[in-house]
Amino acid sequence: xxxxxxxxxxxxxxxxxxxxxxxxxxxxxxxxxxxxxxxxxxxxxxxxxxxxxxxxxxxxxxxxxxxxxxxxxxxxxxxxxxxxxxxxxxxxxxxxxxxxxxxxxxxxxxxxxxxxxxxxxxxxxxxxxxxxxxxxxxxxxxxxxxxxxxxxxxxxxxxxxxxxxxxxxxxxxxxxxxxxxxxxxxxxxxxxxxxxxxxxxxxxxxxxxxxxxxxxxxxxxxxxxxxxxxxxxxxxxxxxxxxxxxxxxxxxxxxxxxxxxxxxxxxxxxxxxxxxxx
Length: 278
What we know:
By secondary structure, the chain is mostly beta strands. The chain folds into two domains: 18-123, Subtilisin-like superfamily (Immunoglobulin-like, Sandwich), CATH 2.60.40; 129-266, Immunoglobulin-like (Sandwich), CATH 2.60.40. The protein has helices at residues 175-186, 194-212, and strands spanning 18-22, 27-34, 41-49, 75-83, 88-95, 104-112, 115-123, 129-132, 135-139, 145-154, 160-162, 166-172, 214-219, 224-226, 231-239, 250-256, 259-266. The strands form three sheets. The protein has an eight-stranded mixed beta sheet with strand order 8-10-15-13-12-16-17-9, with no helix packed on it. The protein has a seven-stranded mixed beta sheet with strand order 4-3-6-7-1-2-5, with no helix packed on it. Helix 1 crosses helix 2 (194-212).
């Protein structure tokens, strides 16, 4: 194990601190190194000290902050460099701190060998909402209202407000096939020109589009404030359009912040047999 010399090899002082900026998990910066000695110096590891600790809250709604240590444990970082005598070098440094550290500027220090150097952390906003399950399955029963439970997690570093999703457009995964079949079924021998075929296609497409309608999704208790680092089980009230074909499978995607909430409207089969067995 190589031992660093007693003299300083980091060219930063109080009036020129090391600056790291970015989201909590992706802080980036550059360290200036200088070897003033007459022997080669190998620098490998350092430690970030005095890092901020994310504040915790007592409930998912963030009503009260609990007592939490203001300083997090030291963090090992890598600044590999081989410095010849008199050499200057700029070495990139990356750090990942508590993901729920609120946006803001913080002071810390970088320890290299026996020396410490000032560090400024500029933590930026990071929005990340995670929703489970990844796909919410709703039975295709036209006109029915159902309640589904989903777990919302605020994995970012700022509070989020969960509101209603409202109307969501539906997609029929076989709409192209259905439109083509409908066009061929309704067209007769008088339809000969390309424009006539195109108009027939548009009529069928509009018909299926109007049948799909909109999936309505409301959040029970909305708006809900979700503090950073917390999860909450949310009741989703879903209304299936009464114009849907119960034999067809539909999909929909609702958007909240950076998350896509997927819905699958799945047929359950017909209640009565379509053909009597022998």
